[in-house]
From TrEMBL:
Keywords: Membrane, Transmembrane, Transmembrane helix. The chain crosses the membrane at residues 7-24, 30-46, 58-81, 87-106, 113-133, 139-161. The lineage of its organism: Bacteria, Pseudomonadati, Planctomycetota, Planctomycetia, Pirellulales. This is Uncharacterized protein.
Amino acid sequence: MNARRLWSRILVVVGGIAMLVGAIDPMEGSLLILPGSGLFAIGTFLGQNERWLIAYRVWVFVLIAIGVGALWGLSMVGGIGGSSGVSPWWAVLMMPYPIGWLMGIWGPESPRWMLWLGIGVGLWYLTIFAIALSKSAFVGVNFVIAIIGVLTIGGCINSLVRDRSR
């Protein structure tokens, strides 16, 4: 195995692990997820994969970067909703972050280990949802977390089944 191929595999594994570990706490974890998605894209490029796959992984990185930028920007101005005076609709600016993360986890050519661990992250999100409901915490955000958990599990299972049929 040449050095370029070795580095490609290392970067894909390290980037994938960073994206999964960062998802345990999506806000603070965004500081792991963003560089992780960048490493994942660079690893794909170094592996001399097809151009469409490289473009896909770069697009995942761009979506995550836009969403994380909005997340931290809105956090710096005091958050959204409640007493902050910022309409909850501004949260729409953060949507590229979970969309990009989902695309990165169960997108095309995702390693099988990443799909299996992605199911674990989805189950974690459903656990967070159940705990928050038992504590009667803010319900709107809880449902978003549950939806992301279900989408993660469903997307990972779909990718595993699709890969198995090839």
